[in-house]
């Protein structure tokens, strides 16, 4: 059953009431931004053969109250007739599309106006407008591309996608769109970074290399407006070392592998321009240590696992041909301590829980 079929009985009941037979019919229309405006609603009623100035010359003036509000995952529309002596029951119609709700209310309003003009002795059937069929293309010609107004998704120029994420994304989000096709894009990039990391091992700066894999989910509405759905997700793989920690009587060679997952906010994401990311993540790593005496005698060789929580800021700038340049800085908190010991068990050093890194990179988007 359509929304119009739900509201038609209340319209017939309303207009058959003697108290509401009126010549001067006034419209009170209210709708949120993005819905059909009052002039558009009046035009939809008029297109169905009704006229707000077509009432009888006797009776009390009355008001047709039409309201549309956001509700749940869509919109709620209401129709009611009012005069100085009372009002009909308010009936509601719901739909995910505000345009559909407005169209149903326009049908009911037209029926009520027809009944009022006929003296309230019944209401002629008013069918919703149907779009006129497009003329067939002439023989030997190519049909013209469907315009956005008929429901096709306009492709962004050069497939360029722009959007941003929200700091506190809602669990559910409703967007009013006209009938058409939604387009889904998975914007991805891979970036290789190189730089330095410090703080974890006292007085040692370790060379650092990372591979960052990024994914942003876009939805483009029938009006051609792209939006990022959810947060930007990033997977990172890294390598540290080789570096050396030197004490008066030992030398410890260090290297490590890390991996992690980041969830990123993006105040600016332009697939063919600048991308800014602020990320928080977690991961783990494996540190390899090999300690020798100064004369080369092996003392200790071991592998130590650790966890880490990180915060980072990242920028990517598109340079053409699908490639971009990147820069990233960040810091982390290490869970688990990395230590090295002498042959007698005395400690040579212990890692700090805090670390930092700075890297530059190059990558491509696909």
How would you describe what is shown here?
- By secondary structure, this protein is mainly beta.
- It has three helices and 17 strands.
- The strands form three sheets. It has an eight-stranded antiparallel β-barrel with strand order 7-8-10-11-12-13-14-17. Strands 1, 2, 3, 4 and 5 form a five-stranded mixed sheet that branches.
- A hairpin with a 2-residue loop joins strand 2 and strand 3 (74-83).
- Helix 1 runs parallel beside helix 3 and helix 2 (38-46) crosses helix 3.
- The longest helix has 20 residues, at 98-117.
- The protein is rod-shaped and about 110 Å long.
- Mean pLDDT is 81; it is low at 12-23, 121-132 and 140-157.
How would you sum up this structure in a few lines?
The chain is mostly beta strands and 366 residues long.
Which labels suit this protein?
single chain; eight-stranded antiparallel beta barrel; five-stranded mixed sheet; 3 helices
Give the averaged pLDDT, no decimals: 81
Q: What is the topology, as strand order, of the major beta sheet?
A: 7-8-10-11-12-13-14-17
Global Rg: 34 Å
The parts where pLDDT drops under 50 for at least 5 residues are: 12-23, 121-132, 140-157
Largest sheet: 8 strands, antiparallel, barrel
The gross shape turns out to be rod-shaped
Show the helix and strand layout.
Blueprint lengths: L2 H13 L9 E6 L7 H9 L15 E10 L2 E10 L2 E2 L3 E5 L2 H20 L44 E2 L19 E16 L7 E15 L5 E3 L3 E15 L3 E21 L3 E20 L4 E23 L2 E13 L3 E3 L5 E4 L3 E12 L1
Parallel strand pairs: 1-2
Antiparallel strand pairs: 2-3, 3-4, 3-5, 6-11, 7-8, 7-17, 8-9, 8-10, 10-11, 11-12, 12-13, 13-14, 14-17, 15-16
Helix pairs in contact: 1-3, 2-3
């Amino acid at each position: 059953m359509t929304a119009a079929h739900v509201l038609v009985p209340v319209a017939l009941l309303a207009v058959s009431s003697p108290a509401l037979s009126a010549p001067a019919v006034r419209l009170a229309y209210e709708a949120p931004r993005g819905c059909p405006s009052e002039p558009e609603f009046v035009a939809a009623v008029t297109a169905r053969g009704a006229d707000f100035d077509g009432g009888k010359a006797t009776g009390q003036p009355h008001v047709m109250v039409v309201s549309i509000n956001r509700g749940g995952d869509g919109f709620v529309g209401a129709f009611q007739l009012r005069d100085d002596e009372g009002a009909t029951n308010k009936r509601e119609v719901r739909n995910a599309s505000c345009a559909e709700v407005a169209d149903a209310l326009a049908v009911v309003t037209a029926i009520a106006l027809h009944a009022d003009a006929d003296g309230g002795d019944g209401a002629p059937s008013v069918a919703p407008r149907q779009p006129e069929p497009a003329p067939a293309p002439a023989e030997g010609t190519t049909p013209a591309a469907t315009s956005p107004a008929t429901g096709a998704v306009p492709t962004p120029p050069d497939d360029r996608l722009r959007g941003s994420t929200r700091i506190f994304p809602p669990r559910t989000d409703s967007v009013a769109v006209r009938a058409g096709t939604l387009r889904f894009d998975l914007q991805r990039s891979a970036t290789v970074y190189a730089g330095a990391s410090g703080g974890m091992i006292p007085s040692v700066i370790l060379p650092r290399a990372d591979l960052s894999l990024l994914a942003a989910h876009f939805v483009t509405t029938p009006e051609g407006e792209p939006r990022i759905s959810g947060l930007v997700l990033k997977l990172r793989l890294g390598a540290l070392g080789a570096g050396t920690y030197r004490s008066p009587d030992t030398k410890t060679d260090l290297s490590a592998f890390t991996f992690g997952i980041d969830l990123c906010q993006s105040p600016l994401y332009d697939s063919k321009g600048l991308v800014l990311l602020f990320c928080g993540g977690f991961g783990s790593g494996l540190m390899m240590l090999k300690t020798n005496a100064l004369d080369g005698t092996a003392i200790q060789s071991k592998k130590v696992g650790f966890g880490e929580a990180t915060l980072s800021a990242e920028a990517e700038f598109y340079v053409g041909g699908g490639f971009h340049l990147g820069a990233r800085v960040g810091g982390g908190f290490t869970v688990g301590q990395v230590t090295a010991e002498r042959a007698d068990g005395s400690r040579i050093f212990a890692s700090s829980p805090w670390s930092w890194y700075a890297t530059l990179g190059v990558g491509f988007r696909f």
